[in-house]
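Researcher: We are triaging several targets before committing to wet-lab work. For this one, the compound of interest is fe (ii) ion. I'm pasting the protein sequence and the ligand SMILES. What I need is the predicted three-dimensional arrangement of the protein with the ligand bound, expressed as structure tokens, so it can go straight into our comparison scripts without reformatting.
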Amino acid sequence: MNLLKTLPFTSSQSQAPIQLISTSWSERSRVLEKGVNLYCWKREVNHDISEYLEQCLKHELPNISFFAQEEDLASKLQENRTGWDHHHGVSGDPFWEDVYHLTKDFLGLSPNRSGTVFLKVIDNNACTKFHTDGDSLRMFVTYYGKGTEWLPEKAVNRKGLGKRNQLIVKDPTQIQRLESFDVGILKGQVPGSNAKGIVHRSPEIKSAGEKRIILRVDI
Ligand SMILES: [Fe+2]
């Protein structure tokens, strides 16, 4: 595995969940390990995809959301692509193929190989309070704009969750970010499970009038 970082892991924090940051996608199933709550595949920006999305943003892009199983994922993506890209121009193929391959791989982590897919433009601050998700696993990719921020365990005060960010973040200098095109698999905080979900938030973009295009898949 081409691990860049594993945060944090010391004997005194043996119960603390770790985050795997890798240049490889092939070991994504390690997010299923008990002590891991984030797998981040760091990868290069694809400029063809960025240019295509710039073009798409010149029009109103409807939110896309649908439930899919591995077998019908390709056809459902094709159907929904029409709302963003009326003519299915070839310049869009790299984006839609990337969405397809990532989602298909991610659904492979689910016992029933199915999940809910969301593609949308975000132009507000969404969830800027640090929190954990209620889904067992969520894949998140910011294709355009600023990526999700997350906290290594040593920087989190879990007792502060639900309160102000100042009470949640022990050390703001430790805030990490999923960059554009990075693929994050985030483990949530599911009732009845002992797993400590990854603490994260959406970046603030509204004041600067920025936009984001994100892919989210929940299983
Ligand atoms: Fe979230």
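Researcher: Any quick observations?
Model: Residues 197 and 210 are 28 Å apart (CA to CA).
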